[in-house]
Design brief:
With 141 residues, the protein is an alpha/beta fold. Helix content is 25%, strand content 23%.
Length: 141
């Protein structure tokens, strides 16, 4: 089992704007990871407290094959000064350990994880981002 993360931002709290960015985010997820809905175990969407026009899971369920994926919508913890109008996901999927994972960070959410927001060809040439936690080896698979 593997985990894939991603996020995007939306310009306004409307159903149409949220549908546009969630669709864009999930299209990129599927394209970059060659991920099929039948490989997914679950998806958790979180939204910042300023978004309540529609559930991201409702948008995802309308996609072919996604209606059989377990999904949950939650509100992201508010931290003063954090990114506004942000939609995040955490997906658990059955993928081989050897499969490279591309986490998807779009629009202003690209600032959350600039190391994961670069195209893969650029990432290979960039030096590794130094962790704030030294001498800790964690394996999240």
């Amino acid at each position: 089992m593997r985990a894939i993360r991603g996020a995007t931002t939306v310009s306004e709290n409307t159903k149409e704007a949220m549908q546009e960015v969630v669709t864009e985010l999930l299209n990129e997820l599927e394209r970059r990871n060659q991920l099929q809905p039948e490989e997914m175990i679950s998806v958790t969407f979180s939204v910042t407290r300023d978004l309540d026009a529609i559930f991201p899971a409702a948008i995802a369920r309308a996609r072919p094959g996604w209606d059989n994926v377990a999904m949950l919508d939650v509100q992201q913890m508010h931290v003063e000064g954090s990114l506004q109008r942000c939609i995040r996901f955490l997906i658990h999927a059955y993928l081989p350990a050897s499969t490279p994972i591309q986490h998807i960070y779009l629009r202003n959410a690209a600032n959350l994880r600039p190391d994961w927001s670069l195209p893969q060809s650029l990432q290979a040439s960039q030096p590794a981002v130094k962790s704030k936690v030294e001498n800790t080896h964690l394996n999240y698979m």
